[in-house]
Amino acid sequence: MTEDSLGLWSVPLAMVAGAIRVSTPFIFVSLGETLTERSGRINLGLEGTLVMGAMAGYAISYQTSVALGAPGGLAMAVSPWIGVIAAGLAGAVFGILHAWLCSKPRVNDVAVGIALMLFGAGLAFYLGKPYIKPTAPRLQAIPFGFWSDNTKVQNALEVNALFLVGCVLAPFILWGLRNTRYGMILRTVGESADAARAMGYSVNGVRMIATAAGGFLAGIGGSFLSLYYPGSWNEGLSSGQGLMAVALVIFARWNPMKCLYASLLFGAAGAIAPALQSVGVHSGRYLFTAAPYVFTLVIMIFTSSSSRTMAGIPAELTAAR
């Protein structure tokens, strides 16, 4: 098989590659938000958390490589993963801050989330300015396309380990929610805070842990953007993916496995424009580029109803705040 022999097969191949690469931040952010919302709290600040995670991951990866000295070898292998952990910790701090503020009387989740979204994005842009030009070590890909001589197939099947981690994490979280004591406590808090208190559980404590875990995963999703795809740090890196992930959680009905499937769908939708350009279709380029955003809007319209409750929604999310 030669590089030119793919023809129209380049389109589905590019969409598969897009589903693998573009979906990864969506997977982590949506799984994190699922945990948060299953506890009865919504975090709209994930866009800021995502951007902060991207900046923190890139900055720590760069600084670690400088501290280790010699380029390549150990620095290239270790620095990006230290950056991933740092991004997760930065996201967890934002999650804890969100949970702490929302635990106060008469504080609205949505208002706090919007404030933290703006704060996180602004802080990341301020702290990240020195790291726009330096090149940090990036996460390496696993070449699953080694069996093919076609460079397009090889490039499409380059998979980062974070994508595989996300694919494993989704069923693990689903299993944990359904079969473990901690999952039962989380679901109880999300369904009835009064019942959870009667059982002796700390509602604010459970929600803080869930929101911190959600922030940790969102931060890791941000590190994927800066350390792998597209693999750089700049102010326009996220393009609203944190907010889109919140819509994705609603679409997935707060089910981790459905979050994984929906993330792959979003990723494939985001790859439509470059896939069509690869076969010479340039008309309507900007329309196809907007496909994920149109998809998000359509989801919100079809899942919103003033006369019925959405299936799967934690009962505490429907309570007036």
TrEMBL record:
Q: Where are the transmembrane segments?
A: 6-32, 44-61, 81-103, 110-128, 159-177, 209-230, 236-252, 259-280, 286-303
Q: Name one GO cellular component term.
A: plasma membrane
Write the record's keywords in alphabetical order, separated by commas. Answer: Cell membrane, Membrane, Transmembrane, Transmembrane helix
> What GO molecular functions are on record for this protein?
transmembrane transporter activity
Per UniProt, subcellular location reads as:
Cell membrane
Q: How does this chain sit within the bilayer?
A: Multi-pass membrane protein
State the PANTHER family in the record.
ABC TRANSPORTER PERMEASE PROTEIN, SUGAR ABC TRANSPORTER INTEGRAL MEMBRANE PROTEIN-RELATED
Q: What is this protein called?
A: ABC transporter permease
Native source species:
Humisphaera borealis
Upper lineage: Bacteria, Pseudomonadati, Planctomycetota, Phycisphaerae, Tepidisphaerales
